[in-house]
Structure formats: C-alpha cells, structure tokens
Prior knowledge:
By secondary structure, the protein is mostly beta strands. Helix content is about 5%, strand content about 45%. The strands form 2 sheets. Strands 1, 2, 3, 4, 5, 8, 9, 10 and 11 form a 9-stranded antiparallel β-sheet that branches. Strands 6-7 form a two-stranded antiparallel ribbon. The longest helix has 8 residues, at about 85-90. The protein is extended, with a radius of gyration of 21 Å.
Amino acid sequence: MPEPVKQETTTTRSPVSIYEIQHWIKPQGAQEYIRVTEDTKAETEREAKTYEPTYIDRKTQPKYNLGKTDTLSFEVDAMGPGGIQQQLAKFEDMLDVPVDYIRTCGYDFTKGQAAPKGALIAKHAKGTLNVDPFAGDDIAPIKISFKVAVTEEYEYGTFDPEAKKFTKASE
C-alpha cells in the first residue's frame, strides 16, 4: 500500500500588484531620474534581434541571434506643472533620444517578501526614447505616448526612490 501524501504547511499567498512596478527614466541632459506617473498604458514587448543574410550559394540560410530588444510602450495623461510630461515635451520632435531606464519592483521574488522602501529591486539599462506627437479626444487630457527601446543587457541591483539612486548588485 502506498504511503499517504503528507500535506506541507502552507503560508497565506496573495497577489503581487502591478502597482509594485515603477518605471524611471533619465533623459539626455537631465540631472536625475524621473518616475513615469499618471500612466494609462505601460506594456512591454521582447523580441530577438537577429541577422539573416541571404547567400545565393547556400540552400539553408544562416540566422544569427544578436541578443534582444525590449520595447516599453507608455501613454500618460498630460499633467502640469512638471513631472515626466515636462521632460517628454522637450523631446516630442526628436528621434532616438538617449536615456537611462530603470524598472523597479517593490517585491523581491527571490526572497519571497516585500523589498525595503529604500532598496527596491531594480534593473537598469541604457535605451532610446521616442515621443509620439501629442494627441487626444474631446475634452479629455492630452495623451502623450512614448516608447523606450532597450537593446543592451540589464544591470541588476536596487533603487532608492527618495535619493533617485541605482546601486548595482555586487558580483
């Protein structure tokens, strides 16, 4: 006769909210990181970067993997004064503005607990910012849509939102 399965003691589990994630950018020329707030959309896509040359003397064509591209699409309501909207307005008519990008999470999945408020779990990378022309409907606030493209590897560490400082994890 098989042994009965022993029940493990369970802990109360609860969902980790999307509000635990914060996005921060520091555009070219800015002195400090600024949080992306009042967002109505924050979506992330990941695509493989590949190079696929076509050779006439090969039946099977090669495909080279060159890493990945993360594209973060945001939409924020125009709010004044200041905030991320003031920074975005500077770059509405520019393409591929260099930025530092940080995504934080208030929950540490490796430890299974909330991260300290001054040491949010973070990943950092350089990227490019592209702001779409401002748009809107009816009497609603102006919508500012923008994308941040990250094509390099992330550095991992912590971020202090009060000091606006990223600390790389020790190797």
